[in-house]
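As a point of orientation, let us examine one representative protein, giving the amino acid sequence and backbone structure tokens.
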Amino acid sequence: MDDLNFVNNSGQGKGNEIPREVKRFNWGAFFFSWIWGLFNKSYLTLIALAVAVLSYVIAFLFGFIGGLYGSKEFSGMIVLVVLFLNFITGTIGLALSIWFGVKGNDWAWQNKKWDSLKHFHDVQRIWAIVGTILIGLGVVGVVAAMTLPVLLMNTNKVAGRAMILKSLSTVQQAAIINEAMDKKCEDLSSGGLAACMGQQLIGSADGAKFELSDGNILEFVGDGRCSDKNSCYVKIITTRAEEEKVGLYLDQKRYLKINMDDVEKISDKYKSKNK
């Protein structure tokens, strides 16, 4: 409740003395500058709008001039000039915001009629609260913009690793099924390996490549003999551009086998990364 001796002289212009109860920093004026000024009849804050418009006009003009001449050296100079101007206008804008914060209550009290001192403080408090909320949301937005790409990148990496392990398991199962069905790969060329292993896979073949149902690609490479564990191989290529190579070879009974050393190495590599 206002003091009984308090005289409400709001809205009477600069000539009247400003009560000491009014003299506080105005966060609404600091946060919203000319927007706050329009609602509080403090039109001096429009200086901030003029500075902002002027900075955009200057930046546009320099960009237009840079586009006309087009040389790299001139364009580089234009960028430096625009950055310097942005720094200057940003500094001026901050200085104006501080000035508006210091003088805001004085201007609002002098320029606008208020029902009471409580009414005045309640309205200014709302401006301060809204400004604080918006600044907080802005900070959260900046933090999110900085962290989300990293989180998405890590998510993509984890998904890519899972896809590698899934395709690796699919190749292993195809080799096991071939042996169980007494299916031996006679053609050990790249296309022959794809056709032989592809009989146990779900997807579509295209020469030496086999596209699995999940979009991953198995690219088979054969030398016609597959006599050792690395002379033939299958390259696993995921939809997320992860790649791994697994050796293929014929055992003594002429069954096509997977190089388990490669399997263990790849499994250990990706499982350790997922921890």
Observations:
- The chain has six helices and six strands.
- The mean pLDDT is 85.
- Residues 117-180 form the longest helix (64 residues).
